[in-house]
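User: Can you help me understand a structure? I only have the sequence.
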Amino acid sequence: MNFDNKEIEMTTPTIALESVTKKYSGVDKPAVDRLSLEVAAGEILVLVGPSGCGKSTTLRLINRMIEPTSGRIIYEGEDVTKGDPNELRRRMGYVIQQVGLFPHRTIAENIATVPKLLKWPKKKINDRVDELLELTGMDPKVYRDRYPKELSGGQAQRVGVARALGADPDVLLMDEPFGAIDPITRDRLQNEFLRLQAELKKTIVFVTHDIDEAVKMGDRIAILRDQSEIAQLDVPEVILTDPADSFVENFLGSGAILKTLTLRRLRDIELSHPLEIRRSTNRTEAIAQLHESHFPYAVLLDDSNQPVAWVDERALNRSESLDSAASRITVQIQPEDTLQDALSSMLQSAAGMSAVVDSRGNYLGTCTIESLASMLISQPTNGDQ
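Assistant: Let's start by predicting it. Here is the structure, written out as tokens:
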């Protein structure tokens, strides 16, 4: 996730697993075998690996939803291997793929679950519910009294995150939280969550089977073999450019260099500036401007300086007006989005480039395939490092 911030302070880890083992009765091999792992305060550590390798079991060992057979779990300097597991769980948020909202409770009641268990005052709970709905992009007036069945998959997942943040825990445990939704919604929720994390700076352990998601979301990535054995633990760019062994290399798959697009943000590259045409421009003048500019496409801006469409000279010659010739811009991206997001946007764009806007939707420029190619060419190879 953070290409600019490669070094993670490990002096005072929030979570530490010390030689933790989980063995189920009647099974020869442990599900998790002598795992030692530290999670720094404020980082997203992603556990990724093939199905059945023990990553979800490891996550549930942290909050003792599954009890370890041996070893120690340290949380904020305290050995929490013993003691009340319910008390431990109330100190950690937990988000799962299936969301797990209570169907008979309203959205507000779902989010308030842990604060109510902690006996917060009613006003404090109501204020927290509204704060979290706004934080996750949902209008409290619209959503607080709805029920889960009235939400889309993406909205339900947002509520799941809001519920996990209900009591403002320092730690979030997330088990494939975006795995059950469509790819477009997943990309959007990932980006929203990363923006949220930049503000909240929670300590997060995130489980996924998808290496692309791991690269996008993780400050560090632990690639796990069978029994949660760590094959490689490092920042994403090191794993992508210098895999530890053939297991890691095979798990990464082909096109590892393309995955580095997820490590870079649009703010890292110089934007292009094709011809800009105002919506108030008449068709004849727009044709003349495009012809003189030698740009294949122009970006059409409205009176608020927001990009609304792409226009090209051929379409203008065949149409009676500027609007009828325009190809609507359906996806806009922001400087904090990744270059992978930009590439996805380009593939949906009639002009083959992405419109970049600020947080208020004001036009900043475009990202082109040439910009991405230049970035990839400039990436260091293993021998250069």
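Now, to help you interpret it: The mean pLDDT is 87. The CA atoms of residues 119 and 166 lie 13 Å apart. Let me know which part you'd like to focus on.
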